What does this fold into?
Amino acid sequence: MSKRTLTLCLAISFVALTGCGGSGDDDLKAWMAEQGASSRGKIDPIPPIRPYEAFTYNAFTMPDPFKPRKIESAKGTRGPDLTRRKEALESYPLETLAMVGTLQRGKATIGLVKASDNKVFQVRQGNYMGQNFGVITSVSDAEISLKELFQDGAGDWVERQTKMMLQEREQKK
It folds into this structure.
């Protein structure tokens, strides 16, 4: 390398190192200190404490909710016929069955019920469905009405009316 090139490199290095030295950010530090001093955090005041209001229990004439009691049931409700042969839809819980349509044969309306395993069954008035000894009382174009029998907490058989509504078919997009 020549003497002239060496001198030029040293001069450029000196100028570059001189630019890096010194502190030119004193004004920035002063501004940050001023902003930090003037900005204070704001904390919401503590909400006032409401005084305790005592509650007086006045339901002494009502039944004690912590004592077991017998539920009143409809008198004369007989239990299900346990000797009867079970039908196919009695092995499915009622919640897993869905009414998907109807058929008309003469004057009789036949309901189409889809089970959880995608099997479709035909049902008429008088057929049994569900695991609570549900007997079909009527079949219409929009619903199937059932009368179910189940045991209450006291062991008595109670009737319950249930309706299975027609499920609209979901359209695929």
Remarks:
- Residues 94 and 130 are 5 Å apart (CA to CA).
- The longest strand covers residues 143-151.
- The longest helix spans residues 3-20.
- DSSP finds two helices and seven strands in the chain.
